[in-house]
Write a structure and sequence with these properties.
Blueprint: E1 7-13, H1 20-34, E2 38-45, H2 51-61, E3 65-70, H3 75-86, E4 91-95, H4 106-111, E5 119-124, H5 131-148, E6 159-163, H6 179-189, E7 194-199, H7 214-233, H8 236-239
Parallel strand pairs: 1-2, 1-4, 2-3, 5-7
Antiparallel strand pairs: 4-6, 5-6
Length: about 240
């Protein structure tokens, strides 16, 4: 195992006031076990609940925490790109602020670090969502895996440990949830090495999913088509490689 010299733990948060405090505190406890140099970054993406107030209170108590407030919601991709830009440590761990993943399982990602590994990607052991979301999620998974040529078991599992220097070479553009596909596709095509680790997925206890509504799914379909045209057909990211 390659013990990380330093880690940034990053959480995008949108209306996650009921879960983000436990995510931050659990991450703090876990980071102390795996590295001596760490920070936590939370991007509050224009939340309408009390997420901002909770985060400001936490930041006043824990100097390891930095909070970035977006005055307006920039979308999931916008929140991720903001957090990736803010990270300063050697490795970047991120997962969502809604507590559907357990930050303590970061230790499992760290254990998977071997020489030459650039990204440790979680994959859900089982998906703890209503059956309609599981069906849509399964169809989505198979479609994008075939369309984009993905090799990972679970492209859409937002529980990752990434070598931060990758973002100096790879430019991300998406402002929506399609950023996960863009990110993995660009990492894969650039030749970065992945390791995969099974992780638990839990039922959402607070808030409402921003992805699983028909209007958003319809819009996502157009965004997927646009991304497929850019990355698979035109291969624009390969033409622009430095």
């Amino acid at each position: 195992m390659e013990r990380p010299r330093s880690i940034t733990a990053f959480f995008p948060a949108y209306n996650d006031g009921g879960t983000i405090p436990s995510m931050v505190l659990t991450a703090l406890m876990t980071l102390r076990q795996v590295t001596d140099d760490y920070e936590i970054v939370v991007v509050n993406d224009g939340s309408a609940d009390y997420t901002a107030e909770v985060l400001d209170e936490l930041a006043g108590r824990y100097p390891e925490l930095r909070v970035i407030h977006h005055p307006k919601n920039r979308g999931y991709g916008g929140a991720l790109r903001s957090g990736f830009d803010a990270a300063t440590k050697e490795w970047l761990f991120y997962t969502d602020g809604d507590a559907q993943y357990d930050p303590r399982e970061l230790k499992m990602l760290v254990e998977a670090l071997k020489e030459g590994v650039d990204v440790v990607n979680g994959y859900k052991i089982t998906r703890s969502d209503p059956i309609s979301r599981r069906i849509i999620g399964r169809l989505y998974h198979h479609f994008v895996k075939l369309a984009f040529g993905f090799k990972l078991r679970d492209v859409d599992c937002d529980f990752r440990l990434i070598r931060r220097s990758i973002f100096d070479e790879i430019e991300l553009e998406s402002d929506t949830g399609t950023i996960c596909l863009e990110m993995v596709k660009k990492f894969q095509d650039a030749g970065y090495t992945f390791a995969e680790v099974p992780v638990h997925h839990y039922h959402r206890q607070y808030g409402v999913s921003q992805f699983f509504n028909w209007q958003r799914l319809f819009r996502t379909g157009f965004q997927l088509l646009e991304l497929w045209w850019k990355l698979v057909v035109r291969k624009e990211h390969l033409k622009n490689e430095r």
